Amino acid sequence: MKYPRNQFFLPRVICSFILAAILLTVAVNPLVAATTPVPRILILNSYNIGYDWWEEEMKGLQDVLSKSYPRTETFIEHLDTKKFSTKKHFPRMADLLESKYSHQHLDVMVAMDNAALEFALQYRQRISPGTPLIFCGINDYDPAMIAGQSKITGVAEYHDVVGTLDLALQLHPNIRNIVVIHDFTDTGRAIRRELEKTATRYSTTTLQFMEEMPLEATVKKLQDLTSDNVVLLLSYTVEKGGRTFSHSEAARLVSRASPVPVYSVYAAQLGNGVVGGRMMKGEIQGNKTAGLIRQILEGQDPDSLPVITGNLSHPMFDYLILKKYNISTAKLPADRVIINNPSSTFAINKATVWMGSLFTLVSTVGLIGLLLNIRKRKYLEEMLRLKIDAYQESQQELLATEEMLRAQVDDYVESQDELQSTEEMLREQIEECHLTYDQLLATEEMLRVQLEFAEESSQKFKAVFDHSPIMVALTTLPEGTFTEVNQSFIDMFGYSRSEVIGKTTVELGVWRRENDRNHYLQQLQSNGFVHNFEAEMHRKDGTVFPVLFSGMVLEIAGKACVLSTVLEITEQKRLQNQLLQSQKMDVVGQLAGGVAHDFNNMLAGIMAAAEMLKRRLKDDERNIKMVDTIIEAATRSADLTRELLTFSHKGTSVSRPVSIHDTIASVLSLLERTIDKRVQLISRLDVNNPFVMGDQAQLQNALLNLGVNARDAMPHGGTLTYATAVKELDESDCRSIGLSIEPGRYVEIEVADSGIGMTKEVMEHIFEPFYTTKSVGKGTGLGLAAVYGTVRNHTGEINVQSNPGYGTKFKIYLPVLEGEAFLPVDTGVAIDGKGVILLVDDEEILRTIGCDMLEDLGYTVYLAEDGARALELFALHKSEISMVMLDMIMPKMGGKEVFLRLREQEPELKVLFCSGFNREGTADELVTLGAGGFIQKPYSRSELSRAVADVLNATNVSTHL
For a Cys-Cys bond, which of 214, 353, 448, 840 suits 870, CB 3.0-4.6 Å? Predict the structure, then answer.
């Protein structure tokens, strides 16, 4: 058959176009592939390979990204926090990733879910400095999470729990209770918080949150639910014991056990037994994240891209489960998605349907007739068999009845003889019964009285046992099996009664040391009792606490038992340790006070002579350097003495309002110039600028000491954080954090590092003077002791929290200064003056150099070597002398006695006290008596000039006390 030539024209044209397109694609694609950049992307996965939600997110991300970038170089790191939820591995993980990527160029860093974002915010600058960060699927998102961070945006994960509950209540209007199942991971808790915020919307419906327990125990409780309940399944990927599940596995287990409908917010759980809900797909989260990545790779600033926080959920349902619970699709939202929806029968060819239906109908009628015939035949056969069996059975029963009648006649004859003998025996027994009955009445009354007494004793014992504030337990001997415990025992150890009864002390693991248990049992078996046996015990959560054990061996129901009482002595131990620490500090304080006076006198002479020598040398640079070395050495020695006096509460402090934030700022400024650049300094300061009353130099030195110690604890770098917060502490707050201060308003100063941490044994000694863990030549052991002394001098408290490998955190509590505060005036310049000063000091070197310094400042000076000479000179030159500079500690006549006798001669006399050692309270006492001021030895020329000028001008007197 022939066809016209133009019949094939159009097909040929179409084929030509298709061929051309194919050739063009083949020719152009290599060029496009060659010119398209290859992005380098690091993806931080919070979880592990095989976790379905993350794999859906990755699929959505790759589907969108591959359209613009056919090829990407992707690095994936799994943080595995579903299985290792404590995140203790984060610091070492950060070290590993830093070594892998610090020299790699990364275009984008992606954090999948909350744990990855937390890790990235802390370590991103170490791993890949300056790389943009995009987060995906963040639960419970709050802008404060990324406050202060740059080059960061992402997609928040919003679970439409409220929309899902609204759908469930619309489809089941008679529901009175909603059972909520979730795990206790970061994701599970975040979704629960979203739901709790809107709980007031359901005034006629209660929300019942399942407790944390293994999933098998959870689904077992679901089997008892009634028809007025529904189940809301949230995220359940890790159970209490640590076993992990995918979303689909959790959905199958819960829906199989639940007799009522189960709703969910995860699309991954659809098709596994749940009805549906307003569900979110991980692929959509990935799509949105890929869109942000693409915009950043195209050159947009990440900070200009807003975080995507909208509702990405969609109504989705399973047709099979809808049919199971007779839920009409007409009640569903118009934009719903339904899976497992069967195809319409009439989608098949209608003729085929009708022919098949007719054939089926004919076959069915014939089959029914055949089945009815067979059924009737079987029925007749069964009736005949039953009649034959009944006849045979009746014949056998007739024979058995005849035999039984013969036996009964024989028995009747024999029973007549037995009745006569039995009648006689009964008469005798009746007489005995009357006698026994009288005895029973008397016995019954006696037993009733005993039972009433026993019941009263039992109730008294039970009341004392159950409500005793001391832990009481009853155990078997020698196994140690618990047969009864009181409520105090349950509260203290953390076990339920069912977990304790029937278990031994070894099975529960309550003894920390096996030797303690053995010694306790030995004393019980030897003496029959034990009194105040000290040991350490384990709670259910693993914490250790000290106790005093007392026990007594008893015999109950013929079995040896032990009645034990357990008294926790944690608070007593803490107070005992505080007393020991206080005693140690007092001993060292006495030692420090004993040497401070003479040592400071010598230092005062050295420093003053060096300052005067430096002024006289003028342009002699070489000798001035030597003098500066002398001044620096004397100053450091003075600081060492001051630290000794500070931690022993013997030093003199300059008390004025101090800005804590300004003090921290100066400390940070010093640390920035001195510590390793690998240590990152962070400050988080309270919105208010709290002031305290104290010595700014001492406080600055204390905070600087903590910073230097933190630096030494981070040899490979880390973070050092200074933070403040103003807190109102009541008595319960002070007890809960182990403080011995009075309730009130305090500023909390926190100094935290991410260093190597400390053991419990080291923490017990860190505030002791001369205790150090550093090598010889690298530490005096006075730093933390001085910090402790400074805090105590300022009526504050300090505590420390640390664990090996997890850093250290010091918290200082100082009373907040109420009212208007002011900053101290700069006091760095010497003040010249004029007048006549009587200088009284028993040290010749101090008299000589003091005279030179005062004359250099413009004053005329009289010198006295002791109190008697001072009284003589004052009597001679009373009209000339403007002020007396008086040493407090002198032989024969002390400074206080000289002061009182001088004031007898001149009540308005101005006196400046000085000393190398000021006993606590002495300066305040002298001010009350009328002294003008006090200056601590050693002092510089400028300090002396200001102290003298203040006393002479009668201003700022208290600043020297």
Answer: 840
